[in-house]
Amino acid sequence: MACALTIVFLGQLVILPVITASSLVVLPRGCTTTRNPATSYGQSEDIVCLDADLVLPFSLPGTAQTLRARSCNIAFAVGARSTIRSLDLCSNDFAKIPAHALSALDLHNIALCNNSLTHLPPGLFRDQSSLRSLDLSNNRLRTLPTELQSLPHLRNINLSGNPLDCCGLEWLRVRGLCAACLCAAPARIAGTPLGATRGSLCLTESELLSASVAHPRRGRAIVNGNVTELGLDPTADPDTTTTTASSTTTTTTT
Q1: Is residue 15 pLDDT above 60, yes or no?
Q2: Is the peptide bond before 57 cis (omega within 30 degrees of 0)?
Q3: Which residues pair with 222 in a beta bridge?
Q4: Which of 68, 135, 167, 181 is a Cys-bridge partner for 111, taking CB atoms 3.0 to 4.6 Å apart?
């Protein structure tokens, strides 16, 4: 909201604008301000940058809390603070992003979709305890930083269009996140939605071959003497088959 100062000068009523620190903020070339009345933060401004050279984060004017950048040349400053709450850096052809890129920011929404990311460095999301939504779709990611598991407010994550290795991503399934995301690995569940898997997904082919299938209908295997959940609910027949390294016992119920 614009502020003004009303004074009387030589008998005349004069209204002067009040210059605040936010009104002095100069946006980088290629960036514009768009009024957005319907955000979760109330009325605010979106900063939209196109084909711009940016050093992030930078100070935002007025009530702006959302920054969207497309086709930009972006560098990341260390320790710079900003009021950004929603950061959209989709379609900037990132091949990598530094671990400090989001430090000193307290973000609710992050979008890094439609880039060329193959890896996210450990610690990238360490300070994002307020993060609610994360869009990493259409990259080349196989794994995720482990600190994402500890973010208490994360409610939505989009990983579609990535060749995911679902070994180690079981926590997403447990929290009801990304159920429709397709696994590219391990090979035995390739093409399967993460939400359709169960148990540990990290058993190797050799472990599966040497395992004793104790409960075919429940998808369990005995590996090194321990009962372990397999990755998929098998569609075995009603026969119960138990195999050990030293002997084979088959029990058929009629």
Answers
A1: no
A2: yes
A3: 212, 227
A4: 135
- What pLDDT was estimated at residue 37? 57
Strands in the chain per DSSP E: 4-9, 12-17, 31-39, 42-50, 53-56, 66-70, 73-76, 86-88, 109-111, 133-135, 156-158, 164-165, 183-185, 212-215, 220-223, 226-229, 240-243, 248-251
DSSP 114: S
What does DSSP say about strands 240-243 and 248-251: parallel, antiparallel, or unpaired? antiparallel
Residue 157: half-sphere exposure toward Cβ, Cα within 13 Å = 20
Dist CA 45 CA 64 (whole Å): 4
What's the chain's Rg over C-alpha atoms? 26
Q: Which residues of 201-230 are buried (b: 16+ CB within 10 A; e: fewer)?
A: bebeeeebeebbbbbbeebbbbbeeeebbb
Q: What angle do CA 174, 175, 176 make, to 5 degrees?
A: 95
Distance CA 145, CA 150 (A): 11
> For residue 145, what are its two tokens?
């930083």
Give 92-126 pLDDT, tens digit per residue: 999 999 999 998 899 999 999 999 999 999 999 99
With tokens 């500890």, the residue in question is 150
Average pLDDT, whole number, for the chain? 77
- Specify whether the CB–CB gap between 185 and 199 falls below 8 A: no
Q: Residue 186: is the preceding peptide bond cis (ω within 30°)?
A: yes
Ranges of H-type helices in the chain = 170-174, 205-210
* φ/ψ bin of 101: left (φ > 0), alpha (ψ from -120 to 50), beta (otherwise): alpha
